[in-house]
Structure formats: C-alpha cells, structure tokens
Specification:
446 residues; alpha+beta; six-stranded antiparallel beta sheet; six-stranded mixed beta sheet; 19 strands; 21% strand
Length: 446
C-alpha cells in the first residue's frame, strides 16, 4: 500500500514511502520521504510490547524474510555498544547477560520467530543492564527504546528506520501550502507572492514543494520533494501557465530526494493519457500494487515535455522520470539518477513513534527494477571522460537496447558511461538544452 491509501495492520494505519533518510549520503541527512495519516494513540506501552510489536511488523512486512532471532539479537547488541563492558552470549539454550564477567541475567533463548518472547527477553535484559551500567542508567526510557529499535533495524537495509514520537509528529511530506500557493517565482529566480496571497494577507511559505516560473511560453517547474500537496500545486501552476499561452513544460527533478509514491504517480497522471506509472512488488500481498494513468482529455497529456534529472534524483523522482520516459511522453535530460528503487511501509507504533520498513521494490513501466539501476536519461549531459568518441558510441548502442533486457553488467556499464552527478554550478546547460528541444518540437518562438 502507498501513502494516501488506507489499510490496517493490527488496527493501525499503514503508509508507504520512498524517501531516503538515515544511513544515506550526508547531503540527504535532513530528508525523508512520505505519508499522511492521523496521529496514532499514545497510551503508555511497555518496552516488552513495543519491541515485540516492532519485531512482528518487521517479520510481516520486510522485503525479505528475516528471522526474529536475528532482529532481537541486533537489538541486544545495541546494549553492548552503549557499554563495552556488557556482553551477551548464547550458552546452550540460554541468553547470558554479563558485565565485566559478572552475571546480570540468564534468559531462556526464544524460538526463532517468537516475536513476543524476543520483545520480552530484550526488555528484561535492558532493565538488568541499566541496573548495572551507569552509561545505560542515565538514558531516558524513550532514548533506550530508540536505541533498541535502531539496533533491530541494523539487521535490515539502510532505508528502514524508526522515528521516535517527537520526530514522527513532524512529517516531511505533509505540506500545508494552500492549493492556491502563497509563492511563485519570477523569471529572475526571485520569489514573489501570488495575487491571492496578497489579497488574503497569507503568510508566504518558505519552501513549497513546487517552484514555478515562465520562460517565454515554457513553464519551468522544479519539484523539490513529493508531498501531500505536490500534485495540486502542479495542476495550479499549469492552469496559470495555460492562461499565458503555454507551449511546453520542463519538470526539473534534479536533486529531488523523493517522497510519496502516490504523489509521483499523481503528477505522472497529469501528463499521461494511459500507461503504467510504476509497479510495486513486495513479499506481503498488501505491498503489491500497480499505478496506472487514466486520461482526462486535458491539453497537458500532449503538450511538449522535458524532464531534468541528476545523480541526486531519488526514489519518487525516479518513478516520475521513468514513467514519462518509458511511456515515450518526455525527453529525459541530465545524468543517471541515484538508483533507490525500494518503498518503505510506515506503521505507527503504540508509543506514538513510527516504524518505516522497506517493503517493496519499484519496477519501471519498461520492466526493469529501479533499485541500483535508476533512470538513464535520453540525453546524457555529462558522459564519462576518457575516450569520448568510443564512450559515446557504446553509450548510444546500450541506450537503443530494451532496458529490461540489459544484464547487470550492461546496466553497470551504462551507468559508468553516464555516471550519476549532482547539479553543476554555473551555466545551466541542461535547462538550456531542454528549452531548445521543446522549442524545436513545438516550433516555439524564441
């Protein structure tokens, strides 16, 4: 299931995201991609129940089968990181907890998939460790819960994570920009309030998810992230552009860290009359879904379109670029994208926190997985250095092949020949090229 949909697991809402976050590159440390539900109840819950619930959800939704014993042991290993004098060992059918070789506790080893018993054992061991260790004793219950669940997640992939209650209340994809946005962009790149914002006295919002400006008859929209408002904002600005005799659109997805899958699919649907947008493939049947476009007969389904991407275009941004490229709807310009092709299911926990569990792969309309492969543009603006003529010839040959038919070695070669790169400072060659291609396609006046 994806964000925006409604499904239930143990009577709690569930959401899906594709945004990169912790254990990701430093330039993404402040981001994470994705979902909207009402806050869950925050009634007191025991550590045993909280850990057991987390282990159960990992077992239920994680992309690959993982033993609860592996997850539980990873939680307990976090205690040894807090205090290096603490050791946890399996001795026969028992878990033995010691500090400086002094016995703190001996616990019956739970069976491999008994999430309830593993939660109880980890909670009891934590209590015993805190009683003997000053380093652990000084931590609050919330801090210990976070450390234990973070420890469990180290047994998964780098995109799964735990958000404690305070962070969970600050969703990066719940955007309060009104449908009539408070800001637009002038051609010089400066922000200016829209007429509606001026008349209403609305306070300008500093970072709407969509920035807009007109460049002649071309609308340039930079999507900074995919949120609850992104689709509505794109439609709003397209309506404004249409009134100005719109003849072409550039979607700038460079350095976009992603967001809601549903938001990316919504934007794709604006420009597609039909076709697959993305397919989600998960181990759990609830994490399998195909997003498809449906026609509304609007002019935007045929208007000349270009998409700009970079090596920091991630997840939902890659979904949108691939959908428009594979359906032959837009020319994609730039460099290969990041290659983050997994989605995270978001489950509110009983303590008010959230567990983000990687639950599905994303498959592009052409049939290839976005994970590791990403999107290779139609026009590579920064091909690999070296023997340029030979590299361009080989790149052109690979790009004529069906992407789904490429071997892993050929994918690696393709990305090496058009390597992922961030936005380049100085002259914006990608934007200039996109405008030239659109003008040629639509015979636009200069």
């Amino acid at each position: 299931m994806v964000i925006g949909d409604t499904s239930f697991v143990s009577a709690t809402d569930v959401r899906t995201t594709t945004m990169n976050w912790r254990r990701s590159p430093p330039w993404l440390a402040s981001w994470l991609l994705c979902g909207v539900v009402a806050g869950c109840a925050t009634s007191p819950t025991s550590r045993s129940d909280l850990l057991g619930e987390s282990y159960q959800l990992i077992d239920q939704f994680y992309l690959k089968p993982v033993k609860t014993s592996t997850v539980g042991e990873a939680s307990l290993a976090a205690l040894t990181e807090l205090d290096h004098d603490i050791a946890i060992d399996v001795v026969g059918s028992s878990l033995v907890l010691t500090r400086q070789e002094r016995l703190l506790g001996r616990y019956r080893l739970p069976t491999t998939y008994d999430w309830h018993a593993w939660g109880d054992t980890a909670a009891r061991a934590t209590t015993a460790a805190a009683a003997a260790s000053p380093a652990i004793a000084q931590l609050s219950d919330d801090e210990l819960d976070r450390i234990l669940i973070d420890g469990a997640i180290t047994a998964l992939d780098r995109y799964s994570l735990y958000l404690p209650p305070e962070e969970a209340r600050q969703s990066p994809i719940v955007e309060d920009t009104p449908v009539e946005p408070a800001q637009s962009r002038r051609g010089d790149g400066a922000f200016t309030p829209s007429p509606a914002a001026i008349s209403s006295g609305a306070r300008p919002l500093s970072r709407p998810s969509v920035q807009f400006r007109m460049d002649g008859a071309v609308a340039v929209m930079r999507i900074l992230r995919f949120t609850t408002r992104t689709g509505a904002l794109v439609r709003h600005w397209l309506a404004q552009a249409h009134a100005a005799k719109l003849r072409g659109v550039i979607l700038d997805l460079r350095d976009d860290p992603g967001g809601q899958i549903a938001a990316a699919a919504d934007v794709a649907d604006i420009f597609l009359a039909q076709g697959t947008v993305v397919a989600l493939e998960g181990r759990n049947p609830r994490d399998r879904r195909v997003f498809s476009a449906t026609s509304d007969g609007s002019i935007y389904e045929a208007i000349p379109l270009a998409v700009l991407v970079s090596g920091r275009s991630i997840s939902a941004a890659e979904v949108l670029a691939a959908a428009l490229q594979d359906n032959s709807r837009a020319v994609v310009i730039g460099t290969s994208t990041f290659g983050k092709g997994t989605a995270q299911r978001i489950v509110p926990l009983a303590n008010g926190g959230e567990l983000w569990v990687t639950s599905s792969y994303m498959r592009a309309p052409a049939g290839y997985l976005l994970q590791h492969h990403g999107v290779v543009p139609d026009v590579c603006t920064r091909p690999a250095t070296g023997d340029r003529a030979a590299s361009l010839e080989r790149l052109g040959m690979l790009m004529t092949r069906s992407r789904a038919a490429l071997s892993d070695a050929e994918w690696a070669e393709l990305r090496r020949l058009c390597p992922p790169s961030p936005i380049r400072l100085g002259v914006d060659s990608e934007l200039i090229l996109a405008k030239q291609l659109l003008r040629r396609q639509a015979s636009l006046p200069r």
